[in-house]
TrEMBL record:
Catalytic activity, as annotated: 2 GTP = 3',3'-c-di-GMP + 2 diphosphate
GO biological process, one term: phosphorelay signal transduction system
NCBIfam families in alphabetical order: GGDEF
Protein name (Swiss-Prot/TrEMBL): diguanylate cyclase
Domain Response regulatory per the UniProt entry, residue ranges: 20-137
Modified residues (4-aspartylphosphate): 70
Example of a GO cellular component annotation carried by this entry: plasma membrane
Length: 336
């Protein structure tokens, strides 16, 4: 005898009595004898199928815990039926006990190769029949229980992974503007700085500050200020994506755009693009801004890290350029 294998596909747990036997045999008398044998076992339900062509559909509908399959049915090879059960996903692991008048070892081998779990020579002793049916049904039930516990575990693991991913995202993203937060920027900038030092490549930084934003808040209110910051952040993020850079909220109304393997000339182009796109947002500016639309000032710097420079030097350079941009009238990009 062999117990059913475990499966990756979810299994259906049969409802109703704990032992449900489907007898597939064209001789009605076998069904009568089997019922008589099992009369003293009220927890064993028996259903009989006399026609081979109905067997698979009946089994799918009944969800037995064991199938007793006659090999010598008219018009069909019983082993073909065994294979047909195995092709049905719902029946793939249901124990199949072959009933045969033939005690030939070759026939037994063919039955097991076709997918049978057991082989009984007709008609066995009642005690043996009951024991085999109970053994296979119990093994199948245990397999189903194990499978459903495994599925539940997998579902809860996936939910946990999704929650962890969301938590990780929340720790990296600024809640108002959805760009990276300062903490993530600091980590990422340090990593990219080290990488640029190793590669000997340029790394560029743009410090971007919204102009006259205190007046904007005072004039239009803090909520309008929040919405303006969100629009400006979306613009910076889309420019950052175009150069595979990182957009981050550096603090308050100040943003940073960091781009690896980017020259000062390229940083200038990125900065001009941010300035122009913020103008295209057409967010009305508040007095004393001389411009009709809300604008940003940008300081851009780039360097190849070496033993004498720190990442803070690049920030300081970009910051100095930003102050120059403010002094020169805002709504512009300034580089050294
Ligand atoms: N609505 C809103 N305002 C913010 C937020 N963070 C910072 N601010 C405001 O941004 C304003 C920044 O003002 P300042 O530092 O004086 O700069 P500014 O008015 O933009 O002037 P310049 O930078 O010189 O053009 C302050 O009024 C802050 O309250 C925020 O999350 N939401």
């Amino acid at each position: 005898m062999s117990a059913p294998d475990s499966a990756a596909a979810p299994l259906l747990e049969p409802a109703g009595p704990s032992v449900r036997v489907l007898l597939v045999d064209d001789q009605a008398v076998v069904g009568v004898i089997l019922r008589t044998m099992l009369a003293a076992d009220p927890d064993i339900e028996v259903q009989t199928c006399l026609r081979a062509e109905d067997a698979v559909a009946t089994a799918v509908q009944m969800q037995p815990t064991a199938i007793l399959q006659d090999l010598g049915m008219p018009g069909i090879d019983g082993l073909d039926l065994v294979r047909a059960y195995r092709r049905q996903p719902e029946l793939q692991h249901v124990p199949i006990i072959v009933l045969s008048a033939n005690d030939d070892p070759l026939m037994k081998r063919a039955s097991f190769s076709a997918g049978a779990n057991d082989y009984l020579v007709k008609l066995p002793e009642p005690i043996e029949t009951t024991a085999r049916i109970r053994y296979h049904s119990r093994a199948y039930r245990l397999l189903l229980e194990r499978d459903s516990a495994y599925q539940a575990l997998r579902a809860s693991q996936q939910a946990l992974l999704a929650r962890n991913e969301e938590l990780r995202r929340l720790t990296q993203v600024d809640g108002l503007t959805n760009v990276s937060n300062r903490r993530y920027f600091d980590e990422h900038f340090a990593q990219e700085w080290s990488l640029a030092a190793l590669e000997g490549t340029e790394i560029a930084l743009l410090m971007i500050d919204v102009d006259h934003f205190k007046s904007f808040n005072d004039h239009f209110g803090h909520l309008a200020g929040d919405a303006a910051l969100q629009s400006v952040a979306r613009t910076i993020r889309s420019v950052a994506r175009s150069c595979e850079g990182l957009a981050a909220r550096f603090g308050g109304e100040e943003f940073a755009l960091m781009a690896s393997r980017t020259s000062l000339a390229q940083a200038m182009v990125l900065g001009e693009s941010v300035c122009a796109q913020v103008q295209q947002l057409r967010i009305p500016a508040a007095p004393p801004s001389p411009h009709p639309w809300l604008s940003v000032s940008i300081g851009a710097a780039a360097m190849v890290p070496d033993a004498a420079t720190l990442s803070a030097d690049l920030i300081a350079q970009a910051d100095a350029c930003l102050y120059s941009a403010k002094r020169q009238g805002r709504n512009r990009v300034v580089t050294r």
